[in-house]
Amino acid sequence: MNRPPILSWLIAFLAAAYFLVPLYATFDFSLRMVRGELTFEAYRSVLSSDVFLSALAFSTVASLTAIVLGALLVVPTAYWVRLKLPRLRPVVEFLSLMPLIIPPVVLVFGYVRMYGSSSFLPMTTTEFGINLLLVIGYVTLSLPYMFRAVDNGLSAIDIVTLSEAAESLGASRFRTIVSVIFPNVRSSLVAGAFLTFSISLSEFVITSLLNRPGFGPYMVQVGEDQAYQPAALAIMAFAFTWVCMWLMEYFATRKPGQIFAPLRKRNLLKAATR
After folding, report:
1. Where does the ABC transmembrane type-1 domain lie (predicted)?
2. DSSP characters for 63-124?
């Protein structure tokens, strides 16, 4: 007779408790801004702040831009290494892990030193240049996770056969990457996008040292001045991150004609009932 998987259920329960109990404690604390009552006053205070909305919008746009740039950098690189330069794959993997070794504070000071006002490419002299450096920093921090996700996705498909089939139909290398490789690693890109977004949204070191109005520095500043609002911010950031991840997965796992299919179906039903 098969024994019930008690140990497996126990491990799953402990893992869920390790994740959910602190989250519940934070949520419960965020409701106690008014003594003796459970209210959403802390959330109302946060949402009424223009600084909160601007910081969240800034970090969201920067994170989404980092996802796009990371995908454009990693997918062609990983594809070309697997297709033409398999001997260099260990070197590329090692280079992709360097952001885990180099601290972000060293990384950002290197950016400022290399792209400062006295360099050949002074990017720190304009708002656009500093914002671009920030996005590049986000791409660098997420490079180990994005590369691993895309590389695992490429290992699951036969890129040699797909490339030869595309070339036999007259497709260029660029067309092959855009029309064949990207759609086949879409689920892997979504996984890498999840990690990139979660890392970039609340990143503090690079954002703070570049003096950008990001969400990470805003959370730290609120935590220094107030008590209950930081807990509300943590819950809201968690919920916002998961909603954005769900939306990315929804749009990435559906074909172009399926995205608005429920809306079209509902409109057809309304037209048929008239």
Report:
1. 52-248
2. HHHHHHHHHHHHHHHHHHHHHH-GGGHHHHHHHHTHHHHS-HHHHHHHHHHHSSTTSSS--T
pTM for the predicted model, two decimal places: 0.80
**Residue carrying the six token digits 């029309």:** 179
CA separation for the pair 128, 241 (Å, rounded): 25
Return the sign of the alpha-carbon dihedral for residues 145, 149, 68, 72: positive
- What is the C-alpha separation between 274 and 269, in angstroms, rounded? 9
What torsion do the CA atoms of 208, 214, 215, 216 make, to the nearest 10 degrees? -20
As a whole number, the mean pLDDT across the chain is: 84
pLDDT at 265: 52
From the options 2.130.10.10, 3.90.228.20, 1.10.3720.10, 3.40.630.30, give the CATH code of 6-253.
1.10.3720.10
Residues 6+ apart with CB under 8 A from 247: none
